[in-house]
Amino acid sequence: MSKLPPTFIADFHDEKLCKRMEYRKFGLTGLQVSKVALGTGTLSDFYGDLDVDEAIKTIHSAIKSGINYIDTAPFYGQGRSEEVLGMALKDVPREAYYIATKVGRYEKTFENMIDFSAKKTRESVEKSLRLLGLDYVDIIQIHDIEFAKDLDIVINECLPELEKIVKEGKAKFIGVTGYPLSRLKECIERAPSKFDSVLAYARYTLLDDSLKSYMDFFQQNNLGIVCASGHALGLLTNAGPQVWHPAGEEIKDICRKAANICKEANVELGKLAMYYFMQLDGAGTFLTGMQTRKLLDINLSAYYNGLTKKEQEVLQLLRETVFTKSLNWEGNELDTYWAAMKAKKQ
């Protein structure tokens, strides 16, 4: 059984469940983060209608069961995720969790989506704190840096402003997030010792194992590593992705084939995906979106209990016959974004 973390509160947490959770060192931050983390991109309209009452109960259940790392962003529902989190966290002791939010990516509309300026960065942090009902966040992350035309504004304007915000006590640590791993590496190399954490999403899944080749670099830079979205933004589930998913049809067809095999076997692809993604060595925490207690139970079951014999057999079948090469959608979102921005100027 795991030792209880500094975030454990006797009259709040379920001690038995917390002792089953593994807590890991998170870079040089001193934080001890739960192996399973709560992503809240699902607390928005990205994944259909949100039952706010159920979402709040899910957040409470997740934290009481030992999950102590929560990730959100202004981009998730243009503040809706932070707002719902704020509603839930009113009834949770502040010492019971670590929370990370972001700056830099904001709205769905292309012209208002990206802003890495110092002014917007500060405004964003202040708004996030208001919505969350907090005096500080544990980690403030620069969100999806690949959307910057070049990294100069990220490194020379956004990052220094975040350093000021940390000195003011409104955040404790600074992180960086993105989809293209090479861009994350470039940003970290250009700003040595400036970042405390890195979040890479959908880059260690049944579809794509490319994060493995960057792990040594991230570890050598003493970063807390967040391995996010083992379900590849909903691709690796029986229900399949939302219409906005940036993957091309080849990838979607492969995932539909996998989902159909799982449905025929009465197995949930999402559980297999969750189990597989948590096998990556070296990550501090594994972040996944969960807006219902049912999804929370499925994901925690994959962690606590592993897979049944039948599920193991289906996973092996998928790896041998469906997920036979590493695939990603890198460039798709950026191509769409820059084409739209160019069209706006004409």
From TrEMBL:
<feature type="domain" description="NADP-dependent oxidoreductase">
    <location>
        <begin position="36"/>
        <end position="312"/>
    </location>
</feature>
<dbReference type="InterPro" id="IPR036812">
    <property type="entry name" value="NAD(P)_OxRdtase_dom_sf"/>
</dbReference>
<protein>
    <submittedName>
        <fullName>Uncharacterized protein LOC105223328</fullName>
    </submittedName>
</protein>
<dbReference type="InterPro" id="IPR023210">
    <property type="entry name" value="NADP_OxRdtase_dom"/>
</dbReference>
<dbReference type="InterPro" id="IPR044479">
    <property type="entry name" value="LGALDH-like"/>
</dbReference>
<dbReference type="InterPro" id="IPR020471">
    <property type="entry name" value="AKR"/>
</dbReference>
<dbReference type="Pfam" id="PF00248">
    <property type="entry name" value="Aldo_ket_red"/>
</dbReference>
